[in-house]
């Protein structure tokens, strides 16, 4: 059984190296199953295999073998077409290609395009999505967003309408969302709200100190109060 989403990369110019590097950096939940700079090799591979995502960077007008290839696969997988021409992008969309990126490809545009593919996998209840991709989350920033593994999050701290996200690499991300927004999403991933200001990842809990409400010590050595109201539920959760 596949444990990662499979990607095929067809690029005439650099054999898919630039796309491979971006994909490995931003989306480790994908596995590159095949890459080539030859459309005929891609045709042979795709007749026998069914990857989840195809990056297609070829010259238009589309050659006859590519035309036939698209007829076979366009309803079976998500295709991201990469081009340096808006006219070519329009042609590609008319031929049923799912999404387009204009060169030079910006990192943020790339991430947005792949995330659209992920949303499609989620909508269609791809079993690999359910196993792996839900374990990652986008943290909006001023520059775009930072994509992290949920397991990297040690704790979240409320500050009015903002939330400070503390990560296991000792960095902090400030997000313009309330702590309640994160509680709704992360409570299904072993997170518990111990206080009106603190949502913690129980996987990063080091120690509990008794008291009226008590305190916890996290893997980043932060010491956080547990509210009296939350104490019993918290102790039951970790029992």
Q: Helices and strands in order, then pairings?
A:
Blueprint: E1 5-11, H1 17-26, E2 30-36, H2 39-48, E3 53-57, H3 64-73, E4 78-83, H4 86-94, E5 99-102, H5 107-123, H6 127-131, E6 136-140, E7 145-149, E8 153-159, E9 162-167, E10 172-175, H7 179-186, E11 191-193, E12 198-201, E13 205-209, E14 215-218, E15 223-225, H8 228-238
Parallel strand pairs: 1-2, 1-3, 3-4, 4-5
Antiparallel strand pairs: 6-7, 8-9, 8-12, 9-10, 11-12, 13-14, 14-15
Helix pairs in contact: 2-3
Notes on the structure:
- The protein is α/β, with parallel strands linked by helices.
- The chain has two domains: 5-131, 3-Layer(aba) Sandwich (Rossmann fold), CATH 3.40.50; 151-238, Beta Barrel (OB fold (Dihydrolipoamide Acetyltransferase, E2P)), CATH 2.40.50.
- It is built from eight helices and 15 strands.
- It has helices at 17-26, 39-48, 64-73, 86-94, 107-123, 127-131, 179-186, 228-238, and strands spanning 5-11, 30-36, 53-57, 78-83, 99-102, 136-140, 145-149, 153-159, 162-167, 172-175, 191-193, 198-201, 205-209, 215-218, 223-225.
- Strands 2-1-3-4-5 form a five-stranded parallel beta sheet, sandwiched between helices.
- Helix 2 packs parallel to helix 3 (64-73).
- The longest helix has 17 residues, at 107-123.
